[in-house]
Amino acid sequence: MVVKTVVAYRNLIRDYILLTKPGIVVLVLITCLTGMYLAAKGFPSPWLVFWCLLGTGLASAGSAVLNQFFDRDIDAIMSRTKSRPLPSGSVSPLSALIFGSILLITSFYIMAVFINPVATFFTLTASFFYVVVYTLALKRRSPLATEIGGISGALPPVIGYTAVTGKLSIEPLILFLIMFVWQPPHFWVLAVKYAEDYKKAGVPTLPVVKGIFQTKVRTLFYTAMLFPLSLLPALYGMAGKVYFFTAFVLSFIYLILTLRFFFSKSSKGMFLFFYSIIYLALLFSMMVFDMTR
Ligand code: HEM
Ligand SMILES: CC(C)=CCC/C(C)=C/CC/C(C)=C/COP(=O)(O)OP(=O)(O)O
């Protein structure tokens, strides 16, 4: 009896953690911390780091929970998502709505009280774009949802940077641009693999609307754009030679893998998808490493 209750609680906690898309939260936090590091030109005040990472992490987590609350009908149709906590029935929609709202309200409170108005504004904007603009307004209507939704995903380093400086400048905009251009190819590789799934659920992703070939062309185009963009931090004095060299090699490998995906007859590019995540994590970590040396 006791063992059963403990297992039930453990499963419930696991489901609530899964609802927050924890893998994405980790990468969001790495990019946010990089923004803070570059702004402070070294390790910023530990309390600022603590509150800013907590606030940004809660915003990312809360937005992901609300995204799954609103998407629970289409998530139940797609094989990739049908075992998520909401479609599988292990968490009720009302509980998810309350949980996501509490996470978001706590995030905005922390950012407003412990950080500053500019970073709070960008946190609100990121959440608004993910939940309202991407999930509610665009995802079921247009393939442009991916690019416009990318505004949300590109804001975490801007939140980190402005948490330290309190104002916008060219450096956070460069980080924004890198992340903005990184997101569509990151997603389209998956969208190609699951094109049938998205079609069945009525989600007009690029492969569903324009076909696999057009999507592969655009994936290649965005990855090619990412190459020069990834070098900008070194050219603007935000990072040094070690970063420049690493970014060059990482972007070169990314381009080669994307070319392989482009010419491949298969629509499965899971290694490329995995590489996109490693790429961004290493790129941003290298900026911090080069600053700390
Ligand atoms: C337009 C924006 C984006 C789209 C459409 C998108 C889409 C996706 C999809 C569909 C998955 C697979 C999830 C699954 O298998 O259940 C995924 C995984 C992932 N994404 Fe993205 N993503 C976007 C932006 C971002 C951003 C901004 C980050 C972080 C900075 C990120 C980090 C990750 C990570 C770490 C994973 C693998 C871990 C996981 O599946 O939870 N993504 N993304
Ligand atoms: C601070 C803050 C709010 C940060 C959020 C950053 C972030 C990760 C944004 C990405 C948003 C996005 C459009 C995800 C799309 O996946 P989807 O939800 O359509 O994917 P799915 O099909 O797997 O559910």
UniProtKB/TrEMBL annotation:
* Key words, A-Z: Cell membrane, Heme biosynthesis, Membrane, Transferase, Transmembrane, Transmembrane helix
- Which family does this protein fall into? Belongs to the UbiA prenyltransferase family. Protoheme IX farnesyltransferase subfamily.
Q: What is the enzyme's class at the highest EC level? A: transferase
State the organism named in the record: Hydrogenobacter hydrogenophilus
Regarding the membrane, this protein is recorded as: Multi-pass membrane protein
Pfam families in alphabetical order? UbiA
Positions of transmembrane segments: 18-40, 46-70, 91-112, 118-137, 144-164, 170-191, 219-236, 242-263, 270-289
Specify the protein name: Protoheme IX farnesyltransferase
Q: GO terms for molecular function, please?
A: protoheme IX farnesyltransferase activity
- Where does it reside? Cell membrane
**NCBIfam families documented for this protein:** cyoE_ctaB (TIGR01473), PRK04375.1-2 (NF003349)
Q: Which reaction does it catalyse?
A: heme b + (2E,6E)-farnesyl diphosphate + H2O = Fe(II)-heme o + diphosphate
Give the top-rank taxon of the lineage listed in the UniProt record for this protein: Bacteria
Can you name a GO cellular component term? Answer: plasma membrane
